[in-house]
Design a protein that fits this description.
Layout lengths: L13 H26 L13 H23 L5 H33 L7 H25 L5 H38 L8 H25 L9 H15 L7
Length: 252
Amino acid sequence: MESGVGTAPTPRGLPYYVAFSQLLGLTVVAMTGAWLGLYRGGIAWESTLQFNVHPLCMVIGLVFLQGDALLVYRVFRNEAKRTTKVLHGLLHVFAFIIALVGLVAVFDYHKKEGYADLYSLHSWCGILVFILYFVQWLVGFSFFLFPGASFSLRSCYRPQHIFFGAAIFLLSVGTALLGLKEALLFKLGTKYSTFAPEGVLANILGLLLACFGVVVLYILTRADWKRPPQAEEQALSMDFKTLTEGDSPSSQ
């Protein structure tokens, strides 16, 4: 990216943490696929392997892509705010669609096999995360992408949007860990305590999932790594608030 007037410098250390988060995220996705391929027979929609679509989609959607969507405002620091918003929203849409496929897969599999639904802690947490994620996206779209929201409403809701975004991401990682442990106990049973190869691989996967969540949250909570407001954005915000409310916006 070329430097120019008004271009904010990239904070020292941020690119390395972002690169590390991506390495962790891609490794998690690859290891999930390897686990399902080596020990669970792979994935398919029209067979008993349909269940395996669920963990793969959830890891890709509600962990990796959701984490990347949260990092958009840290990575794209000098692009137009509107462009950054659209990218942030689109990544969440892709994550939601992929997660929806995973949710349909597990319910359809349970129906075909005659298994009960929504009885475990993992399933309760999963449904809660999915609903919260959908509501968060709808409300975020209404406030930040839909042109009807006033400046004061956006400013009031922004802290809640940021908090619930991070909280839902953390819940997603925790729910994935619960599901991973549940899958191991169902298949391995007492063999889990004998350090079976599948159990060891899945334990490493769980640690990498947790590390990915921690690194993403660390990047998000570094105040000095936040996307700085650009002069053009501040001018547009002032004009918008002046037109809608008759005064100038406070600093954010």
